[in-house]
Amino acid sequence: MADPLSLCLFVPVEALAHTLLALLQGDRFLLQQVRSPGELMEYTDRHAENIDCLVAINHIAIQPLFNQLYERGILLPVIIIDDMDDPGGGQDIAEPVAPTYFYHPSEVRLSASKVEAIASVIEQAIHQFLKLAPYLYPGRKDDNHDTIGYQRGQARFPRNAAAPSRAKAQGKTRLPRGVLQAKSR
Asked: Do 64 and 144 belong to one domain?
């Protein structure tokens, strides 16, 4: 059985938070709900390397939070849930946002009315984020790196690596757990 995905939920709307918690309960996900912007910043500062996906509601506090995360070098797969009061109803299920985005080009938007699809959208957000990796590391092949791979459950994760490898990995931009760089031989 695969390791559960670690999710951070920043959904201050109680009704939506309860719905998400009910939809995501089980062995597949480890959930951490944060209720305030300060709590989100504190949690991501301490646990960014363990967060597989951030789920946040689109409201007034989200843009400054994303700016702070970006400035701190914390980039995570993210799902932005458009508010239930949004007259446009958000995008149709989940689509990468382009060309305008809040956090990074691979963020995924989800209408609150389609939140029941959240489990599959989490996988999509991680996949979109991994496609962003070459954008984050232009010229990686010139640096003797030929690929960036997703290696869930492997001992080669930076957090599961021996101390010298882990220290080397901690100096890099924080990517979701399981994203590592493979050197060409």
From this structure: no
